């Protein structure tokens, strides 16, 4: 059995959230987790029932080499290597969804709403950082063969220029700068 490595718990949970139930298409999933041995390597196994159709769902990922402790205000999905679970288009989709959930200005927001916007924008910046990890040294853009998922290929096909290093760096910096407005 060939397993992919989840570089963090956050990455594993994001991957599972993006995988629809094969029977009914639902994405809600609240798994239990355990650490197991698979072919002599430690892995995390997530198992649960689809709340919509009752199908048993299971995901197993190799454990990361180093544990990343979650910090909601400074999201981090993995080490310096590109993800084995999500492709660059899926990461940019996450960045778009996260940034799109946040208002542009903190004016008039409650402390809770400011905190949620801060987390959304920092998640967007971190997701763009994950896209950048797919650009090989000396290259200026993500190679087209890095897009493996239907969602990722669709995001790439919509506007391939979004996957250029310079543009990604500007977007990442912009999300970080905007997020700083929401710090209480």
TrEMBL record:
It comes from the Bacteria. This is Uncharacterized protein. It comes from Actinocatenispora rupis.
């Amino acid at each position: 059995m060939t397993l992919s490595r989840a570089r963090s718990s956050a990455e594993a949970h994001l991957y599972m959230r993006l995988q629809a139930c094969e029977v009914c298409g639902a994405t809600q999933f609240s798994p239990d987790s355990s650490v197991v041995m698979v072919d002599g390597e430690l892995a995390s196994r997530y198992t649960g029932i689809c709340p919509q159709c009752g199908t048993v769902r299971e995901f197993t990922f190799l454990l990361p080499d180093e544990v990343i402790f979650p910090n909601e205000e400074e999201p981090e999905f993995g080490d310096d290597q590109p993800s084995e679970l999500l492709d660059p288009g899926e990461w940019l989709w996450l960045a778009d969804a996260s940034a799109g959930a946040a208002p542009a200005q903190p004016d008039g927001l409650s402390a809770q709403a400011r905190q949620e916007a801060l987390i959304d924008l920092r998640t967007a910046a971190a997701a763009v950082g994950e896209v950048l990890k797919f650009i090989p040294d000396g290259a200026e853009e993500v190679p087209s063969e890095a897009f493996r998922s239907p969602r990722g290929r669709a995001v790439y096909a919509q506007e391939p220029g979004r996957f250029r290093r310079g543009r990604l760096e500007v977007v990442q910096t912009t999300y970080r700068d905007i997020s700083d407005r929401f710090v209480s």
